[in-house]
Design a protein that fits this description.
Largest sheet: 5 strands, parallel
Number of helices: 22
Structural class: alpha/beta
Strand order of the largest sheet: 1-10-9-8-7
Helix content: 40-55%
Number of domains: 1
Radius of gyration: 25 Å
CATH superfamily: Methylmalonyl-CoA mutase
Shape: globular
CATH class: Alpha Beta
Length: 563
C-alpha cells in the first residue's frame, strides 16, 4: 500500500545500525550458570560406556528417565500453584483450574500460615490471604477442599517447616471425616524445613530442631500408612530463585536430602522404606539445554547415591522423582507478555528433561498473584506442549547429543564438588547454622545482579530492547484482599473459636505438649490429627510444639501461651 504524497516520512535508521543487527553474534558464550560452551562438541567430549553412564530409560542409572516409556505411558502431571484470600476463594480457583484441564492441584498458603500464626495474630492483618490462602482451622480445610474428591485427585500442599505437620493433619482429618482410607490419598506435601530458612521467614518462627523432627514425623507416618503420598518435597526451586546456578541447585538440594535421609535412618526407618517416598521440587530456568542436562545429572547422581552410599536395593529408591516450577525469577514486569514466551521455553526444558509434574508460572507473576486469564494461559502452555509439539513422544529426545552429554557430565562434576564443600562445613544443617549457606546465596545473587547491570546478561525488556513506560503493555493485576474480606475472615475465625468445645481443645493441646516431650522417636502426627479435629487452631498447635522444644510460644511476644 503506497502512502499518500503528503504523509510524513519516517526517519531513516542509520545504516550502521542495520548492519550491526544483521551481523550480530552472541556476546555471552556461557551457560546461565557460567559454564563455558565450546563452538562444537564431538564424540571425544563424551567418555564412558553407554550402560554405565546412561542406561536405557527406566534402567539404572536412570539418566535418560525413570520410566521406560516416559510420557507415552503417562503425561506429566499438569498443576498450577494456587492460593489467595480465604479458603473459599481458593477452592473456587482450584475448581476453575480443573475445569481448564489441570490434572493435579497445588495449593499454597499465606505468610501467617507458613509461619504458624493464626489470622487474628495482632501482627499479621496486612498479610492475610495476600501471598497464598489463609488457613487456621479444620473448618478452613473443609472449605478449601469442598466439592473436591480427595481420593480422586493428586493434591500438592506447599507448606514447610513445623506448620507442615499441622496442615497435613488437617487434611487427613478431613479425609477421615469423609470416611476415606488414608492409603487412597494421592499427593505431596513440601515439608522441607531447611529450605524454609531461606524464604524470608525469621529463624525464631521456624526453629530447625523442631522442623527436622516434625519433617521426619511426616515422612515416617506417610511411608508406612500412605503409599501414594510423598511426605517430603525437597525444595531446590526456592534456593535457585536466590541466584544459584544449576550445579548449586543440585548440590544444595542433595545436601538437604541427605540430612532428611540421615535423620530418618536414625529414627529407625529403612532406606528402601523412605527413599521411594522422597521427591524434589526443581526450577526450570531460561537456559533450555543447561536445564535439560541438569535434570539428567540429578537422576544419575541420585541413583548412584542411593545405591552405592546408602545401600538401597529397591529400584524405586534409585529413581529421582521431581516436579518442576518454571523460574519466577526469570520473569520481569516490563513488557509482561514476553513472560509467556519465557515460560514456554522453560516448560519445554522440564519436559525434555523428564519431569513428573509441572507448574508453569503465570506471565503476571512479577506483578501480582495470577488472574484467571493468566492461570488459563499457563495451563494452555502445558496443553500445547503436551498435545501439539510432540516433545513427549519419545523418552529423553536430546539424549546422545554430544553437547547435552558433555554438559550433563560437567554439571555432575560441579555438583559433586559443591557437595564436598558442604560436607567440609559439617553438612547442610551445620552450614546453615554457621551462616555459610547465607553467604553463598548472597554472593550468587550479587554476581548475577552485577552481570545484569553491566549488561553482560541481556534481559529483553529489562536491560535490552526497552520501551518507554507509557508505551509498555499494561495487564490486569489480581487485587489484594479488601478490608471487608479481611474482616470477614477474622469474624469467621472468631466464630469458630466461640463455638468449639474449649475443654476438648485444651485437653488435646496438653496431650500434644506431653507427647512432644517424649523424644525424637515419638511421632506427633496421630496426636495432631486428633488435636485439630477437636478444634485447635494452627497457631495453637504450632505454638505448643514450639514451647515443648524450648522456644517461645509466640516469637513475636504478642500472644500468651494457651497452656
Amino acid at each position: 500500500m503506497t502512502p499518500p504524497p503528503d504523509a510524513p516520512r519516517p526517519p531513516d535508521l542509520p545504516r550502521k545500525g542495520h548492519l550491526d543487527a544483521y551481523f550480530e553474534k552472541p556476546a555471552r558464550l556461557r551457560t546461565w550458570s557460567g559454564l563455558e560452551v565450546k563452538p562444537v562438541y564431538r564424540p571425544e567430549d563424551v567418555t564412558g560406556a553407554y550402560q554405565e553412564r546412561l542406561g536405557d530409560p527406566g534402567h539404572f542409572p536412570y539418566a535418560r528417565g525413570i520410566h521406560a516409556d516416559m510420557y507415552r505411558g503417562k503425561y506429566w502431571t499438569r498443576r498450577e500453584v494456587c492460593g489467595y484470600g480465604g479458603p473459599e476463594e481458593t477452592n473456587q480457583r482450584m475448581k476453575f483450574l480443573l475445569a481448564q484441564g489441570a490434572s493435579g492441584l497445588n495449593v499454597i498458603f499465606d505468610i501467617p500460615t507458613m509461619t504458624g500464626m493464626d489470622a487474628d495474630h495482632p501482627m499479621v492483618e496486612e498479610e492475610i490471604g495476600v501471598q497464598g490462602t489463609s488457613l487456621c482451622t479444620i473448618e478452613d480445610m473443609e472449605a478449601l477442599m469442598e466439592g473436591l474428591p480427595l481420593d480422586g485427585i493428586s493434591m500438592s500442599i506447599v507448606v514447610t517447616s513445623h506448620a507442615a505437620p499441622v496442615v497435613l493433619a488437617m487434611y487427613l482429618a478431613v479425609a477421615r471425616r469423609r470416611g476415606l482410607p488414608l492409603d487412597r490419598l494421592r499427593g505431596t506435601i513440601q515439608n522441607d524445613p531447611l529450605h524454609h530458612r531461606f524464604c524470608g521467614y525469621p529463624p525464631a518462627y521456624s526453629p530447625l530442631n523442631l522442623g527436622l523432627k516434625t519433617a521426619v514425623d511426616c515422612l515416617e507416618f506417610c511411608a508406612r500408612q500412605m503409599p501414594h503420598w510423598y511426605p517430603i518435597n525437597v525444595n531446590a526451586y526456592d534456593l535457585r530463585e536466590e541466584g544459584l546456578g544449576a550445579a548449586e541447585e543440585i548440590g544444595f538440594s542433595f545436601a538437604m536430602a541427605r540430612t532428611y535421609i540421615d535423620r530418618a535412618l536414625e529414627r529407625g526407618l529403612a532406606i528402601d522404606e523412605l527413599a521411594p517416598r522422597m521427591v524434589f521440587y526443581c526450577s526450570a530456568h531460561i537456559d533450555l539445554l543447561e536445564e535439560v542436562a541438569k535434570f539428567r545429572a540429578m537422576r544419575r547422581m541420585w541413583a548412584r547415591m542411593l545405591r552405592d552410599e546408602y545401600g538401597a536395593r529397591d529400584p524405586r529408591s534409585w529413581q529421582f522423582k521431581f516436579g518442576v516450577h518454571t523460574a519466577g525469577v526469570s520473569l520481569v514486569p516490563q513488557q509482561p507478555l514476553n513472560n509467556i514466551v519465557r515460560v514456554a521455553y522453560e516448560a519445554l526444558a522440564a519436559v525434555l528433561g523428564g519431569a513428573q509434574s509441572l507448574h508453569c508460572c503465570s506471565y503476571d507473576e512479577p506483578i501480582s498473584l495470577p488472574t484467571e486469564q493468566a492461570h488459563q494461559i499457563a495451563i494452555r502452555t502445558q496443553q500445547i506442549l503436551a498435545y501439539e509439539t510432540g516433545a513427549g513422544n519419545t523418552a529423553d529426545p536430546l539424549g546422545g547429543s554430544y553437547f547435552i552429554e558433555a554438559l550433563t557430565d560437567r554439571l555432575e562434576t560441579e555438583a559433586r564438588a559443591i557437595l564436598s564443600r558442604i560436607a567440609e562445613q559439617g553438612g547442610m544443617f551445620r552450614a546453615i547454622e554457621t551462616g555459610w549457606v547465607d553467604q553463598e546465596l548472597e554472593n550468587a545473587a550479587y554476581r548475577y545482579q552485577q552481570e545484569v547491570e553491566r549488561r553482560e546478561r541481556l534481559i529483553v525488556g529489562s536491560n535490552a530492547f526497552i520501551v518507554p513506560p507509557e508505551q509498555d503493555h499494561e495487564v490486569p493485576a489480581h487485587p489484594r484482599p479488601s478490608a471487608t474480606q479481611v474482616r470477614a475472615r477474622l469474624d469467621q475465625l472468631k466464630r469458630f473459636r466461640d463455638l468449639r468445645d474449649a475443654g476438648a481443645v485444651m485437653a488435646g493441646l496438653r496431650r500434644l505438649r506431653d507427647e512432644a516431650g517424649q523424644g525424637e522417636r515419638h511421632n506427633l502426627l496421630p496426636c495432631l490429627m486428633d488435636v485439630v479435629g477437636a478444634g485447635a487452631t494452627l497457631g495453637e498447635a504450632v505454638g505448643v510444639m514450639r514451647e515443648a522444644y524450648g522456644h517461645a510460644y509466640d516469637p513475636a511476644g504478642q500472644i500468651r501461651s494457651v497452656l
